[in-house]
Amino acid sequence: MRKQIVIVGAGFSGMWAALSAARLADKNQHQAVDITLIAPQPELRIRPRFYEKAVRTLTAPLQPLFDATGIRFLRGTVKKITASLQEVSWQDDKGEAHRLRYDRLIMASGSHVNRSMVSGAEKYAFDLDQLESAEVLEQHLTSLAQQPESEARNTVVVCGGGFTGIEMATELPARLREIFGENAQTKIIVVERGPQPGSRFSEALRDVITQASAELGVEWRVNAEVESVDASGVTLKDGQVITAQTVIWTVGVQANDLTQQIDAPRDRQGRLQVNEQLQVVGFDDIYATGDVARAATDGRGNYALMTCQHAILLGKFAGNNAAASLLNVEPLPYRQENYVTCLDLGAWGAVYTEGWDQQVKATRAEAKKIKQSITRELIYPPKADKIAAFEIADPLAPFV
């Protein structure tokens, strides 16, 4: 009887989980294992680039790759996981309901930003969390050129000074000049609850962020939290009011709600606790990867972050290990010792760091080249070539 691996989600982690599982099954052809991936569309959405313009173009097709590697794709959305029956219930793109049994389930359903945590944010704030919402933001920014010039029109408030907030904020000066004209007086304000710009990062990285922000004219309101958002702008908890027609929400990222259907330990972001094989604690037949997994990267107390850097390798290990458990192959313990960051800083350039202590190794144009190499080449899917794709899908292969 054929065994079934079901993967939920076609993001970075889901795509690589499918390829890695298919690779191991292909190496053990005497074993009958099918790999099925369920997602709303057979495309990889390049989420790390959603702060850029032309966001609708930031996708890559996956169906040719799946066809070449023997992965079955089902267009739809998983609605329910019944772990006791080893079954998922899903709805196709026509709204029809289906059920699918699994022998191994890989949760790769991603994350979403939570705008409901502050009054008015869900209604009045934009985000760049998903392609559709990032496209709404892009259309809004473009439409501002048709409105009368005012301080509110020319002001953008970015709520949150993490990586997404910083990349969006530092991209905006050039974007707004394109929209309003070179001589327009614009204001970009980052609201950050920490005591300084980039508070959660190393001192060396903070210094670069501060310098780039100053040169680009990006303002920071530190030690500040948003009380509410409305049609006229933002009110901070200390009573300050920032008038703006554009408020962008980048904080409060949570694992996909499907994780709540699995009765297993989760962290405050909703990520499922996994062991070193990436099995969900208490469920040997369920694996979690990418943004839904709380996975230790090493033995020094570091855990994977909600980034494509970690999602890619997590996916490879999860797919490999799910297949290995059905093929009587020894699993590979997940390890991701090396950690780098490459933060885009708009027209100023970028900054590249190495290590969990974020040692700055390159800045400005040099780092910008590294950033573009990563986001425009390295993280894209492999070609629809079975041999080449399977070589890269090996969890132990260098990802270059």
From TrEMBL:
A Pfam family assignment: Pyr_redox_2
Top-level division of the source organism's lineage: Bacteria
Cofactor(s), by name: FAD
Annotated family: Belongs to the NADH dehydrogenase family.
Keywords of this entry: FAD, Flavoprotein, Oxidoreductase
The protein's name in its UniProt record: NAD(P)/FAD-dependent oxidoreductase
InterPro entries for the chain: FAD/NAD-bd_sf (IPR036188), FAD/NAD-binding_dom (IPR023753), NADH-Q_oxidoreductase (IPR051169)
Domain FAD/NAD(P)-binding: 4-311
